[in-house]
Amino acid sequence: MKKIGIIGGAGYTAGELLRLLINHPEAQIVFIHSTSNAGRPVCEIHEGLTGDCDLHFSDSYDLNAVDVLFLCQGHGFSRKFWEENERPEGLKVVDLAQDYRDESEGYTYGLPEAKREAIREASLIANPGCFATAIQTALLPLAAAGRLGGEIHVTGITGSTGAGVKPGATTHFSWRTDNLSVYKAFEHQHLAEIRQTLRQLQPGFDAEISFIPVRGDFARGIFAMTYIDTDLSIEEATRIYKDFYAGAAFTHVSDRPVDLKQVVNTNKALISLEKHGSKLLIISAIDNLLKGASGQAVQNFNLICGLPEDCGLRLKPSAF
């Protein structure tokens, strides 16, 4: 049984992390830190945990009391946290922010489909971004085969939970519902980690990644549409993808078109392929809060702790 601490316990990703860890057979939650909610029952903030959890938020923490620490605060917080705290010897860390996704300070980038064996040996994990996960799972097999060449085109639609729990002008229900909008076109922060991984798999990769992120009018999930020019036939491409993901715990290549409802509330990444003339279209779908954040964080927790990769993560989507 691994003892768990969580820093930044009030947000969406922390809520999903708690939902998973409360039911995880090898996890015991020792503290859930939230200065603004200290003393309050966790289920007052994460109401979906009512009846499942009698834990309270704390404004203090003892890093020596836990085996694994999850950092669930906003981007930039993690570096500040380690400036103010000393990491005890042997403490493993899974950081859900973007601070160490460049693999600085000894962190390993936590995308199991690309770095499973390195993650198993690591103590410090930088959990990937949600869009980065969806787009990389669409491209990893081609990079590993050295088949990425010209410009990569991606349009990705994300649910409103990707913007976090704090309300804003573009997250209000009245603005977001029945609406679509583009943001951070060609400049999304996840592009850096995507390029980093692709270059590790295919040295010399320097093609442009033209990415258009879209705010969707749904709560959770990412649906990414990626296309490239290639001389691969659909049969050759399908073989490359199925061979690459043959041992993956949660990423699957479908022979049928995939849709968002197949992955929402699961840790799956589903992929389908189509060939149109010279263009290969890769559709990838994930739940942004699970495979794109907290589910992948637990997947990494399992790997660094020597547990089965899918432990506590066999979640089922809704039938409708």
From TrEMBL:
Pathway: Amino-acid biosynthesis; L-arginine biosynthesis; N(2)-acetyl-L-ornithine from L-glutamate: step 3/4. PROSITE patterns: ARGC. Pfam families: Semialdhyde_dh, Semialdhyde_dhC_1. Gene3D superfamilies: Dihydrodipicolinate Reductase, domain 2, NAD(P)-binding Rossmann-like Domain. InterPro entries: AGPR, AGPR_AS, AGPR_dimerisation_dom, AGPR_type-1, NAD(P)-bd_dom_sf, Semialdehyde_DH_NAD-bd. Signal peptide: none annotated. One of its GO terms (biological process) is L-arginine biosynthetic process. It is an enzyme of class 1 (oxidoreductase). Coiled coil: none annotated. Residues 3-122 form the Semialdehyde dehydrogenase NAD-binding domain. One of its GO terms (molecular function) is N-acetyl-gamma-glutamyl-phosphate reductase activity. It is found in: Cytoplasm. Its main location: cytoplasm. The active site is at C130. HAMAP family: ArgC_type1. Catalyzes the NADPH-dependent reduction of N-acetyl-5-glutamyl phosphate to yield N-acetyl-L-glutamate 5-semialdehyde. NCBIfam families: argC. Belongs to the NAGSA dehydrogenase family. Type 1 subfamily. This is N-acetyl-gamma-glutamyl-phosphate reductase. The lineage of its organism: Bacteria, Pseudomonadati, Bacteroidota, Bacteroidia, Bacteroidales.
